[in-house]
Task: inverse folding
């Protein structure tokens, strides 16, 4: 947004005649300006901020039935605004002219529409949502609350109605906004006999965050019991392997190794599962280990990293408090595990792990005379959060069915564990992620409401809590305003502001038989081309909540970039022309999906769902940004194509460029992004990795030195 003046196209001579509309100030300040300058004005008695209010009655109550924000933003009620906008102009026999158009639009759009706009244009809406004033729209923040109010107000201006059973546009619920290790957390060795000479008889208390740390999914409970070593903590019929065979762990605490039986390369940098011959199986998942321990009667789980997997001795960061394990879970340092094993008369950790790996068989035993106790306490901070939900009613026999069009409006606030700059405390404005999707959602709502009524109703949903794990969309499907059986499809917009080369990526294309045909029809009418990022309905965004309920989904995405989940994801980097093209494309898709025959969810492609993220696993980062154009059907085959590198990253220093394809990482040949992520999970800071890169038609070899995440 530019400062008003001669460069804005508005005559300075008119400025004394322009009047500020106090009811439309929300979000219309631009942080790009050196000083705050409110650009919502009134001219000739009419508010030019997009609300169509007049000075004579502007600021009066919206009347009965208006949502809670009406007192702050008094405009026509949802039930009358569309009708008033159109009838007033028609009665006077006039259309809205360029002179009457919002100066916000005049500043941003070279061509003014004759359509009477009721919602803020996409560029201005995005600039507000991604402004410093909203503090990154973090969960529990005032900035996120302001963003929610803004979205609700735009829904109201369009003339959308409240969803069935909802009194206003807000679907409220409570969620944990932060969790920290509580002061009562403790872990100790019980004083229960043993050799006084060895210093054990008196027991020992360990230091939290130094010697041990609760696992993020741990239950909050006290625990105590005799200690049992249960190998890798696996009990699997599929792989014919059982660490719990002939082992009684009822009422006891189990000590288990991370990962699963494996082999390690000579360099120690590459570990491969003995179960799969390559990547870890689901038996290696920490939550699986906790579940198996609980099913066998254990009262708590102690976890330790095997010594042969390099770079993994550090304790895992605590970032949860979900309690999904149902029993306490604690990770301990290798040195602590060795102390406990010695006390119980067993071999050291390295010897035990090697024995299991070489034999691919259990070596479980009860530690003699060793008892431990502890407590996991977690300090939770909770706050009320809100999905913003509205309905555009359909017409005809299918009007009692719905399609959902959604986008999340939260982001990372000042950063934190989900940031790719985790040690930097700075506002993460999230212009692309996902102010772009939210702005697009508002524009699509206006376009659909201006057109012919659809044969199905449309629920527009701005979800909260996506960055915390699709919490808002999961709440929506668990507490739907309409029966899930009445929802025919869900369209999700997440990161649609960085269109490049006119390519839009679409996921979920195989979840309904009609989808690919619908996409091709819309593609023929659009200048965009599209590429499949996975036919399945799962993935790292809100559509997954619907896919898990077997509702057909589409996911729209313009690709990753070096600013993803960093403080540099700002509004000035958005491709606004491209965003407009995406808006038109998805609007067309929505009309076609609303008119399609009812489709059954196709689950067979779920294993081919999109996996999104800058490859940066475990403690290390390479610094490449994937190109999703070769991610269709769950992979691409023949390496990982990149669309760029993070500045000053190992990849950038190694000379990798846009369009390069990484075909080998160390000793690991790469077929897809999953392979690269798994390879990085085994890396350590400072490790030099030999890369084979396909650069054009040539294979180039280079080295990159991995760095710790920052």
Result:
């Amino acid at each position: 947004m530019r400062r008003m003046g001669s460069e804005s196209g508005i005559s300075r001579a008119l400025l004394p005649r322009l009047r500020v509309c106090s009811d439309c100030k929300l979000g219309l300040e631009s942080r790009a300006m050196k000083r705050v300058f409110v650009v919502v004005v009134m001219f000739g008695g009419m508010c030019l901020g997009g609300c169509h209010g007049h000075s004579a009655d502007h600021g009066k109550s919206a009347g009965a039935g208006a949502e809670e924000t009406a007192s702050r933003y008094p405009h026509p009620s949802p039930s009358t605004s569309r009708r008033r906008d159109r009838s007033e102009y028609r009665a006077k026999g006039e259309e809205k002219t360029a002179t009457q158009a919002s100066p916000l639009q005049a500043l941003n759009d070279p061509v003014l529409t004759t359509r009477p706009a009721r919602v803020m244009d996409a560029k201005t809406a995005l600039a507000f949502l991604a402004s410093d004033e909203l503090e990154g729209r973090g969960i529990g923040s005032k900035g996120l609350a302001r963003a929610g109010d803004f979205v609700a107000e735009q829904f109201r201006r369009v003339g959308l109605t409240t969803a069935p059973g909802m009194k206003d546009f807000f679907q409220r619920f409570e969620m944990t906004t932060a969790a920290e290790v509580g002061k009562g957390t403790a872990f100790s060795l019980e004083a229960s006999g043993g050799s006084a000479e060895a210093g054990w008889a008196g027991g020992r208390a360990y230091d939290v965050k130094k010697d041990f740390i609760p696992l993020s999914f741990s239950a909050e409970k006290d625990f105590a019991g005799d200690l049992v070593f249960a190998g890798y903590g696996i009990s699997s019929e599929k792989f014919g392997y059982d660490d719990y065979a002939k082992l009684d762990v009822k009422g006891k605490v189990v000590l288990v190794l991370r990962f699963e039986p494996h082999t390690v390369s000579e360099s120690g940098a590459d570990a491969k599962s003995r179960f799969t011959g390559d990547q870890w199986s689901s038996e290696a998942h920490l939550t699986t280990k906790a579940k198996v321990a609980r099913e066998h009667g254990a009262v708590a789980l102690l976890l330790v990293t095997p010594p042969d997997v390099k770079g993994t001795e550090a304790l895992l960061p605590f970032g949860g408090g979900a309690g999904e394990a149902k029993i306490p879970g604690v990770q301990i340092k290798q040195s602590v595990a060795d102390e406990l094993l010695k006390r119980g008369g067993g071999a050291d950790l390295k010897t035990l792990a090697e024995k299991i790996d070489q034999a691919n068989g259990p070596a479980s035993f009860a530690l003699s005379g060793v008892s431990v106790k502890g407590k996991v306490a977690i300090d939770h901070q909770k706050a009320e959060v809100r999905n913003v939900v509205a309905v555009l009613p359909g017409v005809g026999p299918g009007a009692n069915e719905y399609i959902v069009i959604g986008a999340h409006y939260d982001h990372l606030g000042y950063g934190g564990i989900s940031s790719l700059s985790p040690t930097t405390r700075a506002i993460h404005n999230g212009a692309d992620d996902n102010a772009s999707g939210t702005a697009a959602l508002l524009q699509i709502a206006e376009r659909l409401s201006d057109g012919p009524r659809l044969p199905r109703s449309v629920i527009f949903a701005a979800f909260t809590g996506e960055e915390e794990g699709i919490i808002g969309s999961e709440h929506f499907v668990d507490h739907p305003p309409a029966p899930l059986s009445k929802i025919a499809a869900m369209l999700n917009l997440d990161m649609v502001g960085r269109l490049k080369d006119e390519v839009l990526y679409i996921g979920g294309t195989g979840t309904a038989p009609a989808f690919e045909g619908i996409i091709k029809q819309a593609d023929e009418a659009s200048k965009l081309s599209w590429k499949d990022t996975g036919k399945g309905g799962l993935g790292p965004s809100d559509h997954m909540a619907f896919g898990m309920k077997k509702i057909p989904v589409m996911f729209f995405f313009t690709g990753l970039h070096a600013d993803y989940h960093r403080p540099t994801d700002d509004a000035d980097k958005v491709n606004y022309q491209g965003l407009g093209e995406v808006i038109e494309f998805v609007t067309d898709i929505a009309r076609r999906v609303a008119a399609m025959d009812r489709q059954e969810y196709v689950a067979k492609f779920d294993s081919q769902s999109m996996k999104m993220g800058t490859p940066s696993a475990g403690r290390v980062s390479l610094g490449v940004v994937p190109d999703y154009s070769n991610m269709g059907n769950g992979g691409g085959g023949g390496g990982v194509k990149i669309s760029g590198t993070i500045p000053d990253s190992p990849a950038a220093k190694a000379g990798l460029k846009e369009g390069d394809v990484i075909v080998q990482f160390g000793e690991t040949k790469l077929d897809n992004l999953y392979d690269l992520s798994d390879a990085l999970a085994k890396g350590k800071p400072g490790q030099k990795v030999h890369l084979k890169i396909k650069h054009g038609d040539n294979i180039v070899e280079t080295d990159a030195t991995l760095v710790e995440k920052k």
